[in-house]
């Protein structure tokens, strides 16, 4: 089930300064520009549809642009938590209503959805995490800020305490997405051969690089209290449940 979370809010009069703990000197820090909101068909369908209307966005995906809103609705319903895939979260990335920067061309309107972020599915490498930013907002740091915001929230979810790492997967040529993951603390893992397809290449197979995002304070080689083993067992149970569900739908 998706977790209901109240949007993080910032007072319009909140100060934009913090104190440097080393010398006590105030320093300017940016206000957060985004907050998370559970992604739904009722509120976010139009903005969600726009994400899939830019060919530049879809060069790394196995499908082309969505033809209409009804096609996007069907896709959105498939990627939200459901009976076959209940252990995931999906959140819209929303601009704060008060804003934290001057609104200019390409910067969107206050309170607007600029993309989404969330977990996708269990695979052998772990729970997958992904994000998509509207083409109009590329180059503004929203993907990095949004992924960090999601990770901070995700590691605090009681029902996800058994998960010690997430995995982002990128095509070898998707350097921009790789940089986002590295900025968020990801470490490079294995390369999966011929693991996906790209519609721009006529469905030709493409590799995927795994990027692991560890729970803060935990690394697999340093865990000695059984938590990684519990994660593996939980992953096995979920994968078995998914396989059983697939058999029932054949």
UniProtKB/TrEMBL annotation:
It comes from the Eukaryota. Residues 33-187 form the N-acetyltransferase domain. Residues 1-14 have a biased composition (Polar residues). Pfam families: Acetyltransf_3 (PF13302). Residues 1-31 are annotated as: Disordered. One of its GO terms (molecular function) is acyltransferase activity, transferring groups other than amino-acyl groups. PANTHER family: GNAT FAMILY, PUTATIVE (AFU_ORTHOLOGUE AFUA_3G00765)-RELATED-RELATED, N-ACETYLTRANSFERASE DOMAIN-CONTAINING PROTEIN. This is N-acetyltransferase domain-containing protein.
């Amino acid at each position: 089930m998706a977790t209901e979370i109240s949007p993080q809010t910032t007072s319009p009069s909140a100060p934009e300064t913090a104190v440097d703990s080393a010398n006590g000197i105030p320093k300017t820090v940016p206000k957060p520009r985004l907050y998370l909101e559970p992604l739904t068909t009722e509120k976010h369908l139009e903005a969600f549809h726009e994400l899939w209307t830019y060919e530049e966005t879809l060069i790394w995906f196995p499908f082309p642009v969505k033809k209409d809103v009804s096609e996007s609705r069907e896709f959105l319903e498939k990627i939200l938590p459901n009976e076959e895939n209940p252990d995931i979260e999906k959140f819209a990335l929303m601009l704060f209503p008060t804003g934290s920067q001057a609104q200019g061309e390409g910067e969107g309107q206050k309170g607007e959805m600029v993309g989404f972020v969330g977990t996708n599915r269990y695979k052998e490498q772990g729970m997958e995490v992904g994000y998509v930013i509207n083409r109009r907002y590329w180059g503004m740091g929203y993907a990095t800020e949004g992924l960090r915001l999601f990770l901070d929230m995700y590691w605090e979810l009681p029902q996800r305490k058994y998960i010690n790492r997430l995995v982002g997967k990128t095509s070898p040529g998707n350097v921009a997405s790789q940089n986002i993951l590295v900025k968020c603390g990801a470490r490079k893992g294995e390369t999966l051969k011929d693991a996906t397809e790209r519609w721009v290449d006529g469905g030709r197979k493409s590799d995927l690089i795994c990027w692991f995002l560890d729970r803060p304070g935990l690394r697999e080689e340093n865990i000695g209290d059984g938590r990684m083993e519990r994660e593996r067992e939980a992953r096995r149970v979920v994968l078995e449940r998914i396989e059983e569900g697939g058999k029932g739908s054949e």
